[in-house]
Write a structure and sequence with these properties.
The chain has about 70 residues and is an all-alpha fold. It has one domain. About 80% of the residues lie in helices and about 0% in strands. Helix 2 packs antiparallel against helix 3. The longest helix has about 40 residues. The protein is rod-shaped. The mean pLDDT is about 90.
Length: about 70
Amino acid sequence: RSFFASGSVAAYILGYAVYYLVFDLHSLSGPVSAALYVGYSLLMALAVMLATGAVGLGASFCFVYYLFSTVKLD
């Protein structure tokens, strides 16, 4: 859950890439260029999701480990 929570930034990046394609990018010369743009945007969003997800997972793991390591068992 923590991986996807921190990796959800990629959905915003992908949404903005599609918004940019539809409203601001008028210099593309056909559907092949648009498909390449969307494909590379998907790869970039996947890379961002993996990077931010890994950081979020590591941070939550360290937090939970620290939290439960301080609990005393009697």
